[in-house]
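Risk register update: the risk of archive-format incompatibility is retired. Evidence:
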Amino acid sequence: MNGKNAIPFLDLVTPHRELAPELTEVFARALNTAGFIGGPMLEQFENAFAEFCEAKYCVGVSSGTDALRFALMAAGVKFGDIVITVPNTFIATTEAISQAGAEPRFVDIDERTYNMDPVQVRKYVTECCTFDSRMELLIDNRTGKPVTAIVPVHLYGQMADMDELLEIAQQYNLSLVEDACQAHGAQYFSRKENRWCTAGSMGIAAAFSFYPGKNLGACGEAGAITTDDETLARKMRMLRDHGQAKKYYHDMEGYNGRLDSIQAGLLHVKLKHLASWNQSRQERARKYNELLSAVSADIKAPFEPSWSRAIYHLYVIQVENREAVQAALAKENIGTGIHYPIPLHLQKAYANQGYRAGDFPVAEKAAERILSLPMFPTLSEADQLRVVETLIRIVLESAPQRAAAAAD
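Archived output:
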């Protein structure tokens, strides 16, 4: 979006300008040492990110998709398995499941948080599955396939209700792998542990994406996996590097999924600023909430439960006639996004699974109404005021038209 008075959806230029000397030094260090793959810069970042996530180990990989795929494979998910997840996420979540050889099985979401609804998960495992206590295996009644894992997505920067999901996973012997690709630094208050827990520290493993637009973004593609399990960490390091235990000694077939040293070095520089960037996003979310509070009937603001400390990778509202509202905002030079317009169960890529419109009504209704407003650490209060004032005017102006159309 161009123009003197434009408010972008996302500003990736300012932080890179501010950090240019430190980021450039990383590149110079790589040139001077020829340390492009592995080495100290990768190890330093992995150690720092593991500590940030309150995990014992971090394995840097080439993307968030690889992170989730390798985590599932290391956890034992294999061909013919079923993995429970949600339909309102980027397709990378289900691509990783499919590429591990498994089949995604969707459950609906909580209408307030947009995250996996534990009630729907329990409904699926109790009504659609049978637990073989002898084999300690959950079997899907319709297909006869084993259900072996759950992948909750911490969507928009807010964690799913992990206590409930972990309880289900433990009861039915399921591996729980967090899709934390949008949740770098998000926290959840565990009633079971009576403490705040950080995204990436609760499941058997967790996948992170460092796509440039993320709260912690690389200058290209990058990802990481966190875990407390040393055996899993070792397997994932082998999977990312052609199955090598050491060079030219291959214990398994693996992949070329390494995180290069330059990206690791750039991420290490940025990681030092992530907590303050997240705090700025939280402050801007509170300001949006304040500005929108008077029109809550027409514009639904995000819901943050008492057990959540969201880091607002995205600030997502709901409005009627979403496309028209988005187009009107664009005419006013205000950038927005839609995350995501078509739930995965209705995508052509999964047409062979037999899902139909109406199967997951909460996710489908949200997909028709969600709109992501500008959100980034340097977003000014004046720009937020302009965004909200313009949004309210557009929504209220369209209300009589909607009422008239309904009456006809």
